[in-house]
Amino acid sequence: MSVMAETTGPHGIVQSRPFTVHDLEAMPDDGHRYELLDGALLETPASGYKHQKVILRLGALLDAACPDELEVLPAPFAVRPSVTVELQPDLLVARDEDLTEAYLPAAPVLAVEVLSPSTRLNDLNSKKAFYERLGVPCYWVIDPLEPRLTAFELGEDGEYERIVKVAGTEVFDAANPFAVRVVPAELIGRRRKA
């Protein structure tokens, strides 16, 4: 869901304006994720079991393979390149030198989004387009229901090209941003009994 902030202008007339990172500080601590994309507020509910399991397992896998000059961080650590943009990829890989204590003001080298019913549309469209525009070299999207991983890399024209789409027990031997082997089915792990 996306909405605009409202302010009261002259004579008490309400005027719409883009949200800023300062508005995020006033958002409730209600378990929802609040992000900004070009001044529009994106609100998503807390993620579920499979979503969290994928983040935990992929984060550990990436962290084990990560070179010393890079860092792997989960949401809510944010990419904040401007006052009207703050995105929290489910996982990000960034150059250590680019990080501040509070957020990443530059493009990560990898952004990962794990799809859920409430994030699917944004993850596959507006967030993907923004990461492309920001110059994020690698963008991975994982569907935990399949399980499936789709990886994109920036081409010479500055646009994302899909480099691989693997599902189940198929193997993705990533070369960028560093060498790591990912098997989508292994990201889900043990199944809970109903």
List keywords for this structure.
single chain; 194 residues; alpha+beta; tt1808, chain A; 6-stranded mixed β-sheet; 37% strand; globular
Structure overview:
By secondary structure, the protein is α+β, with helices and mostly antiparallel strands. The protein has a single domain (47-188), classed as Alpha-Beta Complex (tt1808, chain A). The protein is 21% helix and 37% strand. The protein contains five helices and 16 strands. It has a six-stranded mixed sheet with strand order 6-9-11-12-13-14, sandwiched between helices. A three-stranded antiparallel sheet has the order 1-5-4, with helices on one face. A three-stranded mixed sheet has the order 8-7-10, with no helix packed on it. This is Uma2 family endonuclease. Residues 23-176 form the Putative restriction endonuclease domain.
Write a brief structural summary.
The chain is α+β, with helices and mostly antiparallel strands. It is 21% helix and 37% strand. The chain is globular and about 50 Å long.
- Output mean pLDDT: 89
> Which class best fits the helix and strand makeup?
alpha+beta
Q: Name the shape in a single word.
A: globular
Strand count, sense and closure of the main sheet?
A: 6 strands, mixed
Number of helices: 5
Distance between the termini: 31 Å
Fold blueprint:
Blueprint: E1 2-3, E2 5-8, E3 14-17, H1 21-24, E4 33-37, E5 40-44, H2 49-65, E6 70-74, E7 78-82, E8 85-87, E9 91-95, E10 103-104, E11 110-114, H3 120-124, H4 126-134, E12 138-143, E13 148-154, E14 160-167, E15 172-174, E16 180-182, H5 184-188
Parallel strand pairs: 7-10, 11-12
Antiparallel strand pairs: 1-5, 2-3, 4-5, 6-9, 7-8, 9-11, 12-13, 13-14, 15-16
Domain Putative restriction endonuclease: 23-176
Pfam families: Uma2
Keywords: Endonuclease, Hydrolase, Nuclease
